[in-house]
Write a structure and sequence with these properties.
By secondary structure, the protein is mainly beta. It has one helix at about 35; strands at about 10-15, 15-20, 65-70, 75-85, 90, 95-100, 105-110, 115-120, 125-135, 140-150, 150-160, 165-170, 175-180, 185-195, 200-205, 215-225, 230-235, 240-250, 250-260, 265-275, 280-290, 295-300, 305-310, 320-330, 330-340, 345-350, 355-360, 365, 370, 375-385, 390-400, 400-410, 410-420, 425-435, 440-450, 450-460, 460-470, 475-480. It contains 1 helix and 38 strands.
Length: about 475
Amino acid sequence: VSGRAQDGIRMVQSRGARGFQFSESPQLFSFPASQLFINCIFFPAEFSIVVTLKIPQMAPEKSEYIFTLLEGDSDEPLLGLRLSQNKFHFLQKEEGQLWFNTLKRGLFLCDGITWLNMLQVKEKLDYVEDHQDLFTNSETFDIEVFHITSVGLFMATANRDSNLGSGIYKWTDGRFERYQNISTYDAQAWQYFTVGKKKFLVVANCRSKDAGDQEQSVIYKWSSRKLKFIRYQTLNTHSARDWEAFNIQDETFLAVANHRQGNRNHNIDSVIYKWNPVTRFFEVNQTIPTTGAYDWEFFTIGPYYFLAVANTFNGRSTVIDSTIYIWLGGMFQPYQFITTFGAIDWEMFQIENRVFLAVANSQMLTEEGKILYSINSTIYELSMTSQTFIKFQDIETNSALDWEYFTVGDDKFLVVANSYDGNSYSLNSVIYRWQGYEGFIPVHRLSTNGCRDWEYFNTTDGSYLIYSSARAALSKVLKLRTI
C-alpha cells in the first residue's frame, strides 16, 4: 500500500540509485513506479531492478512472486518474477514466455513460434581443443559438412586411394561416425546441394576407374527411403579438382574446375552445367577457358552474380592470372584479372557492408624453375570507387591450400591451411581475428600435418573446426571453447 510507512521496509539510496530493504518478510508491498523510478525516462519500455534474496528453505510445493509489474489498478501482471523450489520463472503478459538459458547466458522470449533473443552475453573465442581423431580411408583432400533436414549432420571426405573410396560420416552422440562408403577415384572434392526438395552430393574424381579411360565425376542423390546416397548422373571431367553449386534466378548450376587433360595440357575448358527441369539432369550451359583450374567460388553482390576461378599452373609457371567473372546476358563474362601464385582456393566473405576475397597461394614457380613455398596469400577488398577488387592485406603463408571464414559471437575469423614450407609438412596453421583497421591478426596457431582443408560447423553442443590432411589418413575435429 503506497502513501504510508510499511513495517519492516526501509527505503535506501546510494549514488543516485533508490531501492527498498526488507528486514522481515512482508506478505505484500506495492507502490507507484514513479516513486522508485524517479530518473528513468524510458520506463516502462526500459528499466532494470536488482533483487538480492536469501531464503533459508522453501516448501517444495510453494511458489511465490518476488516482483510483479502491474498496469494501473489491474491485478494482472505485465511482467513477473516468480520463485519456486529450485527455479526462477519469468512471466510476461501477451508477449509470450521468457526463458533464461544458463548455458548461453541469455534471456529468450517465445512469441508462440520461435525463441527470440532478448538479452544475451556474446560469446568470445577463448581457445581451441582436440575433440576427435577421425581416421579416414586414406589421405583427405576435401571435407564437405552438410545437414539433411530431419536426418542429421553429415560430413563427406574426398579420399585419395581409389581402392578404398571415400567416406560419409554422420554426427552421432557428439562425434562423427562412419555412415556410408562410396567408390571414388583419387577424389579431390565434394559439393552438397539441393534442387527443390531433391538432395545431391557430387564428387570431383581426378582419375578414371581404369587406366586410359575417360575420367568421370559422379552426382549422387539422397534416397529418403534407403537413407543413403545413390548414383544419379555421370559427367565427363578432366582431372577435376572442384565443384561449385549455385542458383541464379531460380535456376541451379554446377561448375567443375577441370585441372588438366592428360599429363601436360593445363590450358583447357572448365564447364558450367545447368539443371534441366524437364529431363531432370544437368546439361552443358557454358564452357570457360581456364589454366590449371583448382577452385570455383560463387558469390553475389547486390543484384550481381560473380564466379571466381583459382588458376594454378599454365604448364610453365604458377605466376598467372586468376579470373573473376560476372553474369551478364545469360552467361559469365570476364570482369577482373588478378595475378596469383599457384592459387588453390578463393574464399569470399562480408564484414558489415564490406566485401572481401581471400586467395590461398600455394607456390611461386617461375619459368626459370625457381620454387618458393613461403609466400604471401592475399585478401582483396571490393572498392566501391573503382568497382574492382584491390589488395587489402598480405599474409605470409606456407603453401596455403585453403581459407575458411567463420564467426564466434561478434568476432570474425579466418583460418588458413598451411601445408608445406619447402622442408616440412608439419606446420602451424593459423587462426586470424578481424581487428578492423589493423586487418586480420594471428591469435591461435594450430599444429597440423600437410593440412589441406578447413571446415567450420555448429551443433547443439557448440562450434567446431575440422581439418583434413593430405599426408595422413587422419583428420581432426577441434572444439572452439568460448567464454
